[in-house]
């Protein structure tokens, strides 16, 4: 093995045909960092809604994929964006040559047939989406489809998971207190250096020394947070730089393309980041 334990999906997959496309057949690589698996499993047992908190690119999405596989449930992921409305989640009537037909949105699919629904960066979505989520996240476990005048009781295996980046939130764009309080929260952050190096090695195919260098570079960039940088380099960025370097791009160029350029458009900040990083080589 890889030095950490493998687990076999415990439930035989009883998955509705509508959800066949969402089942996860192969075990996703996920390196546990704390007690997140235990907490998620306990939440799942009671079908409690879960909020994954943490900066972008630190493993939240990979964790949900892993948990869905481990629990033997299909996973429907929705990346929220600022134009996303309740109808994008719930569904809408579509005009077809045969007339108007209702089309279930991703959330409705999950609610009807029993999937884990992962709403990534939910805070980006318009406020009216919370109206849809609220009756699903309390004892009612109902999804109101206003347009169809229908109230769908959630399938026993439905679970709602959202991600939330506390660093990005402003007063105007934040989850309402009444929404936040419906979720069990699990905190995510960049993994400790040795763990993060292990992940970079595995995901980018680098050797151990290169992985450690990239993790040291990340630490430098994370120290610049607040000094022109909203966030330091994420684990995802280290993997990108690592892939470039493992593919033959000289390290400095790989770090420039994988980390420095994407993270900021400001020439001065780039300069500062560049020299901080050079000190890590
Ligand atoms: P987020 O959803 O937090 O924005 P992701 O889950 O997409 O971030 O993580 C970005 C990448 O980092 C993943 O594709 C994966 O390669 C890697 N990664 C981060 N944390 C872990 C971890 N604990 N185990 C395995 N891979 C990880």
From TrEMBL:
One MF annotation (Gene Ontology) recorded for this entry: ATP binding
InterPro entries from the UniProt entry: ATPase_dyneun-rel_AAA, CbbQ/NirQ/NorQ/GpvN, CbbQ_C, P-loop_NTPase
SUPFAM superfamilies: P-loop containing nucleoside triphosphate hydrolases
Every ATPase dynein-related AAA domain range: 49-183
Residue span(s) of domain CbbQ/NirQ/NorQ C-terminal: 196-279
Superkingdom of source: Bacteria
Keyword annotations: ATP-binding, Nucleotide-binding
Family from the record: Belongs to the CbbQ/NirQ/NorQ/GpvN family.
Signal peptide as annotated in the record: none
Name used for this protein in its record: Denitrification regulatory protein NirQ
Pfam families noted in UniProt: AAA_5 (PF07728), CbbQ_C (PF08406)
